[in-house]
Amino acid sequence: MTREEKLTVIEDLTAQLGDNGNIYLADISGLDAQTTSNLRRACFKANIKLAVVKNTLLAKAMDASDKDFGDLPSVLKGNTSLMFSETGNGPAKVIKDFRKKSDKPLLKGAFIEEAIYLGDDKLDALVSIKSKDEVIGDIITLLQSPAKNVISGLKSGGGKLAGILKTLSERES
To answer: How far apart are CA 120 and CA 124, in angstroms?
Structure first.
């Protein structure tokens, strides 16, 4: 690979790192062609981009990025694959599900919305991370609950102010 080609790869990687808030580093070495194909298919179905990268080029791209990757470059040893996803827990779920049939991929580290996770032992914690949509759904559910109480109080009170106040005060107790 020429110097110009390396610079182009670093620029592309830097742009990808900048465009994605959820970045996983995994080790998929030792997977045969069929298993690798199955992993790529699982990633595609989950809307996860999977790419094998050279550690030295990725380290330079991390340095050039505006993001603070902390100790994440320390896991850049051996085989490294990048996984980019819209959801923070998507790649973790794919890895965990895939490992029911295989001992790989191994999680080397992850960068999830400014938080850094190092090591395969963090996989379960990453699986349990809620996506933004899930958190928004939980918040909406919590906000709707008091509104539903008020509406049901209005309906059960018969539309008269005294009945409404009585119903609402009973609910507070």
So the answer is: 9
pLDDT per residue over 106-134, tens digit each?
999 999 888 889 989 888 888 887 767 77
Percent helix, strand and coil across the chain, each to the nearest 5: 55, 15, 25
Q: Which residues of 90-103 are buried (b: 16+ CB within 10 A; e: fewer)?
A: bbbbbbeebeeeee
The pTM of the full predicted model, rounded to 2 decimals, is: 0.74
Contacts of the segment 163-170: beta carbons below 8 A, 24+ positions apart: none
Q: With beta carbons less than 8 A apart as the criterion, state whether 155 and 141 touch.
A: no
CB atoms within 10 A of CB 2: 7
Which residue reads 């049901």 in tokens? 152
The span from the CA of 23 to the CA of 14, in Å, is: 12
